[in-house]
Amino acid sequence: QVQLQESGPGLVKPSQTLSLTCTVSGGSISSGGYYWSWIRQHPGKGLEWIGYIYYSGSTYYNPSLKSRVTISVDTSKNQFSLKLSSVTAADTAVYYCARVPGVNTFGGVIVSAFDIWGQGTMVTVSS
Amino acid sequence: DIQMTQSPSSLSASVGDRVTITCRASQGISNSLAWYQQKPGKAPKLLLYAASRLESGVPSRFSGSGSGTDYTLTISSLQPEDFATYYCQQYYSTPPLTFGGGTKVEIK
């Protein structure tokens, strides 16, 4: 059974880059058929999709964060990662990684619902 | 972007009650809608996808319906473990994928 686990610093200074990694166990990122996602939740608030990546490296980002976000994949380690640059206190949130079934068609990416989630990791931006 | 509006934002109900939560999309999403349950300190859990398809292992007291822009999550008989926050999410148009603001179901 596939499981996801986030890891990374829980405290990041303002203006620095937030870096998180999601390790996938029980299945291979390279098997295809899924997009690997990052989602965040500000304290006491709703959910915000950050972006996702296919094992081939194709990425899709939320336009609201696109200028600051990089998602990458390391198939040899069965991991994918998030980098968010120039962070401020507004980036303080619980960050989740999640799996979403999907395919890339001629007309664009077609995805379904997020079926597996990591437990989440709290990241605080503070000096 | 497709905006998702949930109502109500919170509700109080008793064990055994029938509970209905509504989600409205800013444009038609052709049943490309998921519902999640989130308990405090936990990750969201997928309940339904394609508006009405129950995820494996989810109790049958959860059901979904709707079409076009309007969708509903119904819990037929509320159980103690159902007190949580529920989110809808559209996956018709990406990027971006978007979520509703959530509905907190509390004990009356």
Q: What does this protein structure show overall?
A:
By secondary structure, chain A is mainly beta. Chain A has no helices and 12 strands. Chain A is globular and about 40 Å long. Chain B is an all-beta fold. In chain B, 0% of the residues lie in helices and 49% in strands. Chain B is built from no helices and 11 strands. Chain B has strands spanning 4-7, 10-13, 19-25, 33-38, 45-49, 53-54, 62-67, 70-75, 85-90, 98-99, 103-107. In chain B, the strands form 2 sheets. In chain B, strands 2, 4, 5, 6, 9, 10 and 11 form a 7-stranded mixed beta sheet that branches. Chain B has a 4-stranded antiparallel beta sheet with strand order 1-3-8-7, with no helix packed on it. The N and C termini of chain B lie far apart (36 Å). The mean pLDDT of chain B is 97. Chains A and B meet through strand 5, strand 9 and strand 10 of A and strand 5 and strand 10 of B.
Q: What's this model, at a glance?
A:
The complex is a heterodimer of chains A (127) and B (108). Chain A has 127 residues and is mainly beta.
Estimate the helix proportion of chain B, in percent.
under 10%
Number of strands of chain A: 12
Structural class of chain B: mainly beta
Largest sheet data of chain A: 8 strands, mixed
Order of helices and strands of chain B: EEEEEEEEEEE
Total beta strands of chain B: 11
Cα gyration radius of chain A (Å): 14 Å
C-alpha termini separation of chain A: 39 Å
